[in-house]
Amino acid sequence: RKEVEQDPGPFNVPEGATVAFNCTYSNSASQSFFWYRQDCRKEPKLLMSVYSSGNEDGRFTAQLNRASQYISLLIRDSKLSDSATYLCVVNKDTDKLIFGTGTRLQVFP
Amino acid sequence: GAVVSQHPSRVICKSGTSVKIECRSLDFQATTMFWYRQFPKQSLMLMATSNEGSKATYEQGVEKDKFLINHASLTLSTLTVTSAHPEDSSFYICSADRGYKDGDYGYTFGSGTRLTVV
Fold it and tell me: Chain B residues with CB inside 8 Å of A102's CB?
């Protein structure tokens, strides 16, 4: 089983739509969780950390379910500029990051 | 904010030659840096953890004699791909850890190096 698993997509959604991504992780001892965004041929950039209580940043909401070992990202009112690959990232050994393969999102007009 | 500079951004080299990639933290000191590799349509795979002043820690399956890492100062880590072969062609990205601050882990990524071995 992969340490971090994501549906690769692609998710093709119209502008204004709400889209949700899920991610599962295998190491129950993981403590830190993140969503990164990666544009084509670019480095990943932190979108948001994921806290146990869930957190929201504008149109983006992240949730963590420790019991089921999954993380979710919800994007509301999708914009064309949201088109990218979204990487689920989990820490390992306190300082190592393990990346999922990413979920590709394509927002169309 | 924390900035990590990575050079070169793109390099093409002949098979059998060596290529050095630099990763610098510009406005903070990084005792730990990480090197990743990403093949097309695949995830970033951690190759090694670079520790200032000591030997790097390599992930399973990564050849330490092929991917030489040097972390000589708190702001610079280098990855040298020795005797490169076409299968080493990939996107190499470094990440520096500015430490846990303001409730967040500070992992900042370099812009990546696209290596093509011909």
Answer: 43
Nearest to A39 by CA among B11, B109, B4, B77: B109
Question: A95 pLDDT exceeds 90?
Answer: no
Nearest to A43 among B42, B105, B111 (CB): B111
Q: d(Cα A66, Cα A82) in Å, to the nearest integer? A: 27
The dihedrals phi and psi of B28, each to the nearest 5 degrees, come to -155, 165
Q: Where are the beta strands (DSSP E) in B1-118?
A: 4-7, 10-13, 19-25, 32-38, 44-51, 57-58, 67-73, 76-81, 90-101, 104-109, 113-117
What are the pLDDT digits (tens) for A69-92? 999 999 999 999 999 999 999 987
Helix (H, G, I), strand (E, B) or coil at B86: helix
In chain A, the residue whose alpha carbon lies closest to the alpha carbon of B9 is A42
**Which of the 8 DSSP states describes residue B42?**
S
> Which of B43, B104, B109 is nearest residue A102 as measured by Cβ atoms?
B43
Task: Identify the H or E element spanning A25.
Answer: strand A19-25
How many angstroms away from the CA of A42 is the closest CA of chain B?
Answer: 6
pLDDT digits (tens, 9 = 90+) for A30-82: 888 999 999 988 889 889 989 888 899 999 999 999 999 999 999 999 999 99
- DSSP secondary structure of A46-109: EEEEE-TT-EEETTEEEEEETTTTEEEEEE-S--GGG-EEEEEEEEETTTEEEE---EEEEEE-
CA dist., res. B74 & res. A86, Å (int): 31
For residue A10, cis peptide bond before it (omega within 30 degrees of 0)? yes
